[in-house]
Each structure stands twice: as C-alpha cells, then as structure tokens.
What does this fold into?
Amino acid sequence: MMSDLNVVSISEAKIPAEPFVARHMIDGAWRVSADAATFERTSPSHGSVVTIASKGGKADADAAIAAARLAFDKGRWSRTSGKDRATLLLKVADLIDRDRERIALMETLESGKPISQAKAEIEGAADIWRFAASLARTMHGESHNSLGSDFLGLVLKEPIGVVSIITPWNFPFLIVSQKLPFALAAGCTAVIKPSEMTPATTVIMGELLLEAGLPAGVVNIVLGFGDPVGTAMTQDRRVDMVTFTGSTGVGKAIVKAASGTLKKVSLELGGKNPQVIFPDADLENAADAVAFGVYFNAGECCNSGSRIIVHEDIADEFVARTIALSRKVPFGDPLDPSTKVGAIITPEHQKKIDSYVQDAKAAGANVPLGGSALDVPGLNGQFYQPTVVTNVAGSMAIAREEVFGPVLSVLTFRTLDEAIDLVNDADYGLSAGVWSENVHTCLEFARRANAGTVWTNTWMDGFAELPFGGYKESGQGRELGKYGLDEFLEAKTVTMKIGKSRDPWVPA
Ligand code: NDP
It folds into this structure.
C-alpha cells in the first residue's frame, strides 16, 4: 500500500526560472553547433525544461578532436611538469568546492537524484581531483641498473595522447571526475561527451577548467547523442584511447568501433551485484546496507546491490526486516533535503523497470512490497516504489540483468559453496558483498567471488586510493587509485649503452 511508504511531497525549494544554457567547449571557446541545433532536458522530477543544450553533430566532434590533437602534439599540456599539472588540478578542486551548491542543483534537476546526495557527490569529486594531483607529482617509471656494467635501462611513463571520455547520466559529475583528472595528471588531452540527459554539470566543469587556467584545447566538451558524437569519438584515428562508462551493450559497440584504429578502450559497465547474508551476520547492519545498496540513486547505479542471497534459516526474518526498513526510506521530491530517493531518469526507463517486475511476477515470483509507480503529491515526474521481489529463481531476467531501479531480488542458499555458485553465475562481475561475523567465511568469500570489488560487512564504500572496475562483462581496466593513472600512460623503454666497447656483429 502506498500509504505505508515514506513519501516526501513537493518541497518549498523552487527550480530556476530560466533553463541552463549549455554549449560546446572547443579549443577554449564556448560554441553553438555548426548547424545551430539544440535539444532540451526535462527534469525527471518536476516535468519542466531545465536545460537547453547545443546538439552536436559530426562537424562539432571533428573540431573538438582536432583541437585536442593539436593541443597534445604541441605539448601545451603533455610537456608541462607534474608540479604545474598538480597545481591546476588542486585549483579545480577548490573551484568545485566553491561552486558545490550550483553544481549539485543542476545535477539534481537533470538526474532526479536527491540534493543531499548530489552535494556529497560533488564533495567526493573534489577529493578525487586532489588525489589525482598527488599522482601527477609522484608519477615515475623504472630504472634497470642490473643489466651489466655497460647498460642502463629506463622505462619512461608517457601520456597515451588524446582521450575520448564518454559518460552516462547516473553520476554525471562524479564519473567524469573518475576519469578526467587522471587523464590530465598523465598529461593527456581530452574530448568529453556527457549523456544527453545530463549535460549541464560537465559544462560547469569546463567553465571551472578555463577559470583555473587550463590551456585552450586541452579539454573539449561536445554535447549531444551517442550517434553521431560518440561514434565519431570512438572511430577517429586522431584519438588514442576511449574511456567509457555505461551499458554493456554500448561498451561492446565501442570496442568494435575502436577496433578499426586499434585504440585502447577502458570500460566501466553494468553489474548485478550480490550481497550474501550468513546467519551469524549482524542482521540489523546488513538490512540497513541492503536498503542503502538497492535504493541509493533509485537503483540507477552500476554498483546497485540489486540481488541478495540469504541463508534459508534467516530468509523470512531478514526479508521482513528489509521490507520494514524499505517503508521508512524517504522517497520523493529530490529538492527536499530529507529525501533519500528521487526520480527515475525518463518515462521509458520507468517502463523498463516495471516490465522486469511484471515479468518476474508472471514467472512465479512474489512482490511483497512495491511493484508500481509512486505518486509524489505536487510533482509530475516519474517515481517508482521501493520494491522487493522474492521467490526469485537464478534463471529469471530480474536475477541476471541490470534492472537499474529500486528493485531488490531475493534468492536463498544453504551452503557457502552454493552461495558462491550463485554469486558467480552471472555475466557481470563488478562487485559483491558478504555479511558474516566469521573472518574465515569473509576471506573465503573475498577470494572466490568473481568481482572487481568485494565488500565484507559493508557496502559501496569507495575511496580515491582504491581501484574500481569489473571482471567479466562489467568492463575492462580500472579507475581510481594508482591504477586509474596507469590507464592513461604508455610505457617507453629506453636502452642506453655505457662506454664504446661492443663486439662487432659484422666480422672484421
Ligand atoms: P548508454 O550506455 O546507452 O549511454 C552511456 C553513454 O554512451 C551516453 O553518453 C550515450 O550517449 C553514449 N553512447 C550511446 N551509444 C553510443 C555509441 N554507439 N558510441 C559512443 N557512445 C554512445 O546508457 P543509457 O544511458 O542509455 O542507459 C541504458 C542502460 O545502461 C541502463 O538501463 C543501465 O542498465 C545501463 N547503464 C549503466 C551504467 C553504469 O554506470 N554502468 C550507467 C548508465 C546506464 P546518449 O545517451 O547521450 O545518446
């Protein structure tokens, strides 16, 4: 029943009277599209137009790539010192902090995420820029001094070149901050395309980069759609690398598109992330983390804890506890500071979420909570109820595919082996979690789970210092940590002869 839920109706906060106007940033200047085309973004929570953006075409992508190539080849950034790069990255971090409220508001208006969460993400993004600054100054290669008395070997780390950065709508500012500062710390230049649903905060980032003094052409932003802008950015031979976050389907298309010029591709894709709950776990903490894992960002999150695998002995009690907590989570107007779960990104996506739930029901699953749209008084966007689906079989689409909504699937197990089999029976391998007070259970799970990140007795904690990425179809390459910098570096071997002695190869 809807009345059981904690619904936050329309808040006092007003959306801006005028939409944000977003243009391309090419070679240090703000430009409209060559054909002057634009598109609008309608707020998913308030139903009104919040952004009018230039709609890029092939000519705009081409100009941006040319500017990034020239900036790289001229050494405007790649030949600067680590100290100078770090100084600029730190300045950008300070500007992000200064503009946190403005950035968070646009992030909320375009994505539908709660304002308190948006502010925390912008704060987290600034921290990543600071971490990348520290890498810019400590980056180094190797020296080999044991190759014999007449040789010295050096491994130089060099920027890979021009990088295409393609980002999705679920964490627009945070995800570009997991890529761009590392590319810049390495000395690369970039062309960025944000999702057409969330262009504004990437444009604000461009403003801050120019204010901080980044030379023209080092970072370029082209707004618009995957086709034609994204495709140009992945096929053009002047681009050396593509880094992408989004769906596994588009990730595969990008690998194909990039194969024509054999450019490097780094991918952060989807997940179907399990949390396994053992009977000896702290069930209160586990249930809270399960609610957080599935409802955070309305479930529109590659790290969503969208399936739980609960020991049979505690399954009924644990599901009841999770449902009770779910009813208390504040869903509603993302502009209200108390809201924890906001709107669904588009009406089409809302339909997709619902069809997963209806199909599971038709296949024999139960839906003890939610399972339909949520009406938020005063707002005409789209919202979905917190939803729990039980009696789920491992073969159902809802247990295997990314629902990307506030929908929890519940499976059960009897032994650790069975739990591990269920965890690893997935095309994805992004993250996995285990809840147990027994350290041996946690360690065995951590070793056997096929996932890029394993959490034990916690969920979704992330640090700039720790790498993030996926096994299997969840991606390739890593972001964050020192691995996040390595993605943007080439290794060059320099072999140096010491002295003149050399046995002639050609006989005298
Ligand atoms: P997409 O993967 O389609 O989009 C991500 C980005 O890629 C957008 O900027 C998009 O542009 C761009 N793009 C689309 N097609 C191409 C292409 N052929 N070449 C280059 N770039 C391209 O994700 P959606 O936003 O459509 O979401 C669909 C599903 O993807 C979700 O339901 C969810 O399951 C998953 N997803 C996973 C994410 C994750 O974090 N792992 C993030 C977002 C979505 P544009 O959309 O502007 O045309």
In short: Residues 166-170, 193, 195-196, 225-227, 230-231, 234, 245-247, 250, 253-254, 268-270, 302, 402, 404 surround NDP (CB under 6 Å). The first helix runs from residue 58 to 73.
